[in-house]
Amino acid sequence: MQLDWLVKPKYPATRVLVCGTLGGVLGILRDAVDGGFEATWYLVIVQNLLMGACAAFVAIYVLLGSNTEDLLRTCGVALVAGYSWAPVFDAGKEYVLAQPERAAEATAAAETDALSRGTEKLEDGAADANLVRKTGQQAKSLSDQVESLRPGPVKTRALAVLGRSVDAISAKAGKDDEDALDSVGHVGEMAARSGHDVLSKRAWSSISKIPVTQGSQAETRKKEYKARFPGIR
User: Fold this and answer.
1) Tell me: the pLDDT tens digits for 152-177?
2) 127: three-class secondary structure by DSSP
3) In whole angstroms, how far apart are CA 79 and each of 36, 150, 175, 180?
4) CB within 8 Å of 109: residues ≥ 6 apart
5) What's the first-to-final CA gap in the chain, in angstroms?
6) Where are the beta strands (DSSP E) in 83-220?
7) What number of other Cβ atoms are within 10 A of residue 83's Cβ?
8) How wide is the angle at C-alpha 231 spanned by C-alphas 158 and 173, nearest 5°?
9) Residues 90-145: pLDDT tens digits?
C-alpha cells in the first residue's frame, strides 16, 4: 500500500487532516467505552471526524505554526488535537480574540525601542532642545499606549524605558522648557492614573529638576503640577 500522501512533505495538509480524523476516531472509541453516546450515534461519529480534522488543522497551522516536515511531531500533535478537539477550538477562539492585544503590544514594543534609542542619545550627548522635544513626544505617545496594555514583558519594559526617558528629559531640558514639563507631566499623570507608583514618583521627581524662571509661564505650569501632585518639590 502506498503511503506517499502521509510521508512525503509535499502533502503536509493531507497528513494533518488524516491524523486529526484518526484522533477523532479515538475520541469516538473513548465515548463508547465511557458509556455510549448522548446523541444519535452517526451524528456523533460525523461530528468527531470533522471536528477532529479541523482541530488538527487549527493546532498545527494557527496555534503552533509547527514545521510540517517533522513527520512524527506533526502526526502526534494532529492526533492529540483531533482526540481533544474541544479545548483546541477554545484555544483558537482565545487566540483570535487576543489579536488586537498582540497588535497593540507589537506597536508598543516598536515605540519602546525607538524611545530607548532616543533616550540613549539624550543621555550621551550635549543638551539639544530638538532632541529633548522629540524624546518627549515619543514618551507621551508610548505612555498613551502603555495604559491599555495587558501586564507582561512588553509593558514592563515600556515602563522601564519611560522611567529612563523622564530622567534624561529633565536632565537635558533648558530653562522654562514647557515642552519638557508637558511630556514628563503627561507620563507622570498616566502612571498615577494607572497605579504605577514607581514611575509616577520618578516623573514627579524629574519635573522638580526642570529649571524655571520666577514669574514665568513655565513656573505656573510647574505649580499646577505641584498642586495636583503634592509629591513634587
Assistant:
1) 899 999 999 999 999 999 999 888 88
2) coil
3) 22, 33, 68, 59
4) 154, 157, 158
5) 84
6) none
7) 22
8) 60
9) 887 777 767 778 888 889 999 999 999 999 998 887 777 889 999 999 999 999 98
